[in-house]
Design goal:
The chain is mostly beta strands. The protein contains 2 helices and 12 strands; from the N terminus they run ααββββββββββββ. It has helices at 2-10, 21-35; strands at 41-49, 58-63, 69-79, 82-101, 116-122, 142-143, 158-159, 169-175, 180-187, 196-200, 207-214, 217-219.
């Protein structure tokens, strides 16, 4: 019996080192950085995984993409020639500059550097309504409704200014290979380039539809 115990004591048992939560966080953070190259900061927390995962395990699947909020991931590694897998979850927070209103912005007012500012924010709460990450994106936009100062500007709060307004007299153009005809019409709707609006002939009162082609100009196709 003593000899058997001595034999057991002399046997070296090898086990692959397990990966730490810090190592998993780093792998997830690196993947999130590829999804969000403009991020100023990325935080990974609440990392959990099934069982003991060796240090040489690799991330083979992560959802949802891009990585943001509560995510799930799959790890894989080779043990004694056989592929092993484990599953886990984590929370990813992404921070980047977000456009806020610096001053009150009235409906129809243009957005510019005077009434907006950039501020670092965690973006998951803004994904549903969208957000802007620089002033250039809103350089040709106006407010659709009143925007309070100090609030994040969502994409559904702005629009391109209308090039034709209701009640405006506009030039209606019809053109083909043989002729070019133009007439003055009254706009019954506001519209931007590419939109169809109703027009009224001021003499006959006949109503037609045409597409806005430029400021004060519509085309009949």
């Amino acid at each position: 019996m003593m000899g058997f115990l001595l034999l057991l004591a002399s046997v070296t048992v090898w086990a692959a080192p397990s990966t730490s939560s810090g190592h998993l966080e780093q792998m997830i953070r690196s993947a999130a950085r590829r999804d969000w190259p403009q991020a100023t900061r990325i935080e990974v927390s609440q990392v959990t995984s099934q069982g003991v995962v060796p240090a040489d395990a690799t991330l083979i699947q992560m959802n949802p993409r891009p990585l943001l909020g509560a995510i799930n991931f799959q790890l894989a590694w080779i043990a004694q020639g056989v592929q092993k897998k484990s599953y886990g979850s984590a929370v990813v927070k992404v921070f980047q500059p977000v456009l806020l209103s610096r001053l009150p912005i009235n409906p129809g007012e243009a957005l510019n550097e005077e009434n907006t500012t950039l501020q670092e924010q965690e973006i998951s709460k803004f994904m549903q309504n969208g957000y802007f990450s620089n002033e250039i994106e809103v350089s040709d936009q106006v407010a659709r409704a009143f925007i309070r100062p100090g609030t994040v500007i969502h994409r559904n709060q702005v629009e391109k200014p209308t090039e034709i307004k209701t009640g405006q007299m506009v030039e209606l153009v019809f053109e083909n290979r043989q002729m070019l005809i133009s007439a003055r019409m009254k706009a019954l709707d506001s519209g931007r380039t590419g939109q169809w609006i109703r027009l009224e002939n001021p003499t006959s009162k006949r109503i037609i539809r045409a597409k806005v082609s430029a400021s004060g100009r519509v085309a009949l196709h």
